[in-house]
């Protein structure tokens, strides 16, 4: 049976303190939603209902104090509103967005690189097939009594050396 009342409230605050201590020891921060605490994920990690934030004053005040310590907003609703209002005709551009010209240039480059990769993949497959045919032909010639292995250059050098030195015994 789930705990209720003051005992459950104290337990929720203790769990929150333990999570804060754990994240501090790791050098991390509680789950974030942009520049604000992600209250839903925090409550989920603690296995408490989201209503605990509002119904348990100690829990809510500890989360607010933590947000203030870290310099982040308590919730998305607490984020400051944009000071600059854009007209409806202007497209909204996020601060982290890339200019359209750079984006198009990057897309063109990615497209050309993908094309090059597919060309090289096809060439690689062609060369692999050619190599397999070459090995098959070589194996066939060797099995029919050819004495010299085509890849043994030392045998060819010895023959050439013998011929060039004039020693044909």
Brief summary of the model shown:
The chain folds into 2 domains: 6-78, no CATH class; 104-150. It has helices at residues 6-26, 39-46, 52-55, 57-70, 100-143, 153-164, and strands at 32-33, 36-37.
Topology:
Elements: H1 6-26, E1 32-33, E2 36-37, H2 39-46, H3 52-55, H4 57-70, H5 100-143, H6 153-164
Antiparallel strand pairs: 1-2
Describe this structure in words.
With 169 residues, the protein is mainly α. It folds into two domains: 6-78, no CATH class; 104-150. Helices cover 61% and strands 2% of the residues. β1 and β2 (36-37) form a beta hairpin. α1 (6-26) runs parallel beside α4 (57-70). The termini are far apart. The relative contact order is 0.06. The model is unreliable at 82-90 and 162-169 (pLDDT under 50).
- Secondary-structure-based class equals mainly alpha
Overall pLDDT score: 78
Silhouette: elongated
Low-confidence stretches: 82-90, 162-169
Radius of gyration: 36 Å
Beta content: under 5%
How is the largest sheet built, in terms of strand order? 1-2
Main beta sheet strand tally, sense and closure = 2 strands, antiparallel
Number of helices: 6
Terminal Cα span: 103 Å
Proportion of helical residues: 55-70%
> Number of folding domains?
2
